[in-house]
Design goal:
35% of the residues lie in helices and 23% in strands. By secondary structure, the chain is of the alpha+beta class. A hairpin with a 6-residue loop joins strand 3 and strand 4. Helix 1 packs antiparallel against helix 2. The chain is globular and about 35 Å long. The relative contact order is 0.23.
């Protein structure tokens, strides 16, 4: 599609599998001590994905460590990222799993981009332990 974004392929995974994948990603964030975690429910608000997971690390190294642990945890479950952005820099890493997207931010960039404010209509739930 020229000048626009083509629709994203959807995996035919059952809802229970998607919920387990999301739970594994959340657990991986917690295991690497991600802070200020929140899940935004984008059902009905976005055709691009169903949920955003937004967490912060305390440094570039911490951001990369969280993102790499999420990818490894899901890889061990047979789940691969559809797309990864920003891993080398470690300031804002985006892990696209189609049904959900994990955003791992350095606090300065999280404050600047304010995704929670941008998606203010989305129901949200804080992550346990973050």
């Amino acid at each position: 599609m020229r000048g626009g974004r083509a629709s994203r392929p959807r995996r035919p995974a059952p809802a229970s599998d998607r919920a387990a994948e999301l739970a594994a990603a959340l657990r991986a964030c917690d295991e690497r001590k991600a802070v200020d975690g929140v899940v935004l429910d984008l059902h009905g608000l976005s055709d691009a994905t169903d949920q955003f997971v937004i967490v912060s690390g305390t440094s570039d190294t911490h951001v990369r460590a969280i993102a790499e642990h999420v990818m490894e945890t899901l890889r061990l479950l047979g789940v691969r990222t559809h797309h990864v952005e920003g891993l080398a820099a470690g300031r804002w890493v985006l892990l696209d799993y189609v049904d959900f997207v994990v955003h791992v931010f350095h606090p300065v960039l999280r404050e600047f981009y304010q995704l929670e404010r941008l998606w203010g209509d989305a129901p949200r739930r804080p992550l346990e332990g973050s």
